[in-house]
Amino acid sequence: MAAIFLGVGAATALSPSNCFDSKKFQLSTRRSLSGRKPWFLVVRSDGSVNLGSNQRSRRTQQLITNAVATKADSAASTSASKQGHELLLFEALREGLEEEMDRDPHVCVMGEDVGHYGGSYKVTKGLADKYGDLRVLDTPIAENSFTGMGIGAAMTGLRPIVEGMNMGFLLLAFNQISNNCGMLHYTSGGQFTIPIVIRGPGGVGRQLGAEHSQRLESYFQSIPGIQMVACSTPYNAKGLMKAAIRSENPVILFEHVLLYNLKERIPDEEYICNLEEAEMVRPGEHVTILTYSRMRYHVMQAAKTLVNKGYDPEVIDIRSLKPFDLYTIGNSIKKTHRVLIVEECMRTGGIGASLTAAITENFHDYLDAPIVCLSSQDVPTPYAGTLEEWTVVQPAQIVTAVEQLCQ
Amino acid sequence: MALSKLSSSSSLSTNILKPLTNSFFLHRPISTDTTPLTIETSVPFTSHQCEAPSRSVETTPKELLSFFRQMATMRRMEIAADSLYKAKLVRGFCHLYDGQEAVAIGMEAGITKKDSIITAYRDHCTFLGRGGTLLEVFSELMGRKDGCSHGKGGSMHFYKKDSGFYGGHGIVGAQIPLGCGLAFAQKYSKDETVTFALYGDGAANQGQLFEALNIAALWDLPAILVCENNHYGMGTAEWRAAKSPSYYKRGDYVPGLKVDGMDALAVKQACKFAKEHALKNGPMILEMDTYRYHGHSMSDPGSTYRTRDEISGVRQERDPIERIRKLILAHDLATEKELKDIEKEVRKEVDDAIAKAKESPMPEPSELFTNVYVKGYGVETAASAVGCGWTWSEKLNNRKSDGGMTGDVCYRIYTIDSYKAVRYLQTSWQLAMCSAPNGGPPLFLSLIFRLFYCHVAQLIKSHADKRHRLIVVSLPASQATFKL
């Protein structure tokens, strides 16, 4: 999916006439004026490189005019880029981690098989050799206690990064995360800060079974005092990792098992992403689609179909699961008046449920239609491939939902 | 031993002098005497996988008298807390430590304030031992502003960061991995200090204890796990909860020591020994054989699962304060009357502290929202990493730093030069933005998160109610595109 997505950008030619109308794309104007470095560099088949902050809007034009071009043309994008370097998502995470460990000697990593083995998803590969056993710690299989130890160490000023081999295993550490991690800053009257990062892959993978396909963001979302972010591209993975490490608050970084091999070109310079900010993936007019993590790619795939059918969806990757970036979301709703939430959480008590409530509370007057929330089914994830496919939201369902919403 | 003989032989002469030295205003030299004294512990130590330390403990008259005073303070404090609870000034849970004072005192005597202590919910006396004041204790118990956690923690959440007291935890056993984490940080920073993680006989059956112990032993952490065995896990006696009540042996490969927890000197010796051991050889378990007179908490009478005879028996035979009193009198370090005077002083101190704590106000309503997160969110991280080029420059329209008071709220106005910073700030929580077109008066254009369309005064007031840090940003009008 991701390959196709990237391929579309690569297959189309740069067209200077595709300058956006500044009045129409208010939000992207704001973004470009913010001087943010281009987050997505597309290498065209004609060898020219797309620079500048008009990045996103141009690509949206390309999507509209060339929506039928679904063939991945990644072979063409081999010409050397003038900026940035290409890497996979897990490498981007590792790069962010390494930069932060270089910068601050208080940063350490603990988790199962993160050291000598290099990490079960290779995120920490090579770090143990570079930093030694005291900074990259292999723990026994004892989530409750090593998460507790990370929190205890954070109370004194260290900045540990606790890796759960799979987010589902962190349920064993729920007490430590909820009571100690989230609440210590409050119950101590501000004496202790807990600058810990808890990260790991979650989400529905490829037939991993029910217990290894859990979405913990819905369980953790009510814990006061923690921040939750979900990364979806190599760019924001590295940026969010760095921001999470530097943050004084406890941050839970949700990665997705299926997104580790996404490839993207990211800037050479140092950058971080704001933890509380949502990402505008595709500006649009007709409907706001809010999503995060892997569902972003399902949504973009559906967006292609929708564009063919004449719809203009605005896609926002909310990224920050706690707190929600109601500013970006609100502005979008005020423009489009229709909201579709596409998430991988369960329907009951998921991120989408909270987001629906938050939007209804704050932006009720701007809505022309009820909020539609597409979530995973409230079932344990089955093993069989076909059943698992229907547990999560598929692009076809997104298309149908938008069509119904926009009637 | 020679010294104690010396002091007893001089007792005859001091007896004659006693009536004169009883005067309240004369400095009694012995109370600051640091002549070493060696005293034997009540019972020898029992050890597991290590050599037991010697039964003879070095101490000084000054130390013994300070033990007495501090333990008397702790005892009086707990009894006062009992009365306060019954008077409904203290609500919720209140777990009292009377009977166990020797553990807190002895531990303090054996270590420094750079070492860390972490314990469970029976933490009032441990907090006091670490340097907390009576006012902070009573204020926190009554939920007042002057409490050590500003009234937001309560009985089970006392903390004192500057003297290494890490709390104060409500969930049984959860503090043990935290304690091992503290020890890890001490090893990481090469501090040459240790962590004492205290838990009870009930928590000794928690899995996370063994998980944390395994990791601590693997990584050679300077962690000392101290089981305060008062023989009852709430209402369940230890023989009904633990197959093997030898908690000091439970570490298997980790050495352990069983200590009479009612003897402050034995506790001191054990803690000193444990500290030396942990710095060289990794974790150790100490089991303190102690007893609590009150029930598990104030809602537990404490007599349904044990007999009153048992409680009074322990009080008569093993009470830690009586032990020290007898020692002081036997070595003639103070007279009975002086000790009684100390107790009276202590009682007065406690009563004064309670009176002062009662006057302390309740926390402000805005305190509900403070300390949930550390201020700043992504703002400071953005500025530092991206080289945002922003400064908290306190100019507004070429005027000097603008700040002031509106009603009873402070606000500051900052100018921010870079858009990156602005973008980040925009999505921070407690932030309002305004734009000053060409030096004119500020115009509020956009706010975040629920505070849309507020005017300045309203804005400040609403922030004031929540006590958020209010930052009003001024930008040149040409760049002001944040329109709603």
From TrEMBL, chain A:
Catalysis: reaction(s): N(6)-[(R)-lipoyl]-L-lysyl-[protein] + pyruvate + H(+) = N(6)-[(R)-S(8)-acetyldihydrolipoyl]-L-lysyl-[protein] + CO2
Compartmental location: Plastid, Chloroplast
Subunit architecture: Tetramer of 2 alpha and 2 beta subunits.
CDD domains reported in the protein's UniProt record: TPP_PYR_E1-PDHc-beta_like
Organism the protein comes from: Citrus x changshan-huyou
Lineage: Eukaryota, Viridiplantae, Streptophyta, Embryophyta, Tracheophyta
UniProt-listed Pfam families: Transket_pyr (PF02779), Transketolase_C (PF02780)
Transketolase-like pyrimidine-binding domain segment(s): 87-262
Keywords linked to the UniProt accession: Chloroplast, Metal-binding, Oxidoreductase, Plastid, Potassium, Pyruvate, Thiamine pyrophosphate, Transit peptide
PANTHER family the record matches: PYRUVATE DEHYDROGENASE E1 COMPONENT BETA SUBUNIT, PYRUVATE DEHYDROGENASE E1 COMPONENT SUBUNIT BETA
GO molecular function term, any single one: metal ion binding
Main location: plastid
Protein name: pyruvate dehydrogenase (acetyl-transferring)
Requisite cofactors: thiamine diphosphate
InterPro entries: THDP-binding, Transketo_C/PFOR_II, Transketolase-like_Pyr-bd, Transketolase_C
EC number: 1.2.4.1
Gene Ontology, cellular component aspect: chloroplast
UniProtKB/TrEMBL annotation, chain B:
UniProt KW keywords: Pyruvate
Domain of life: Eukaryota
Name of the molecule in the record: Pyruvate dehydrogenase E1 component subunit alpha-1
Protein's organism: Citrus sinensis
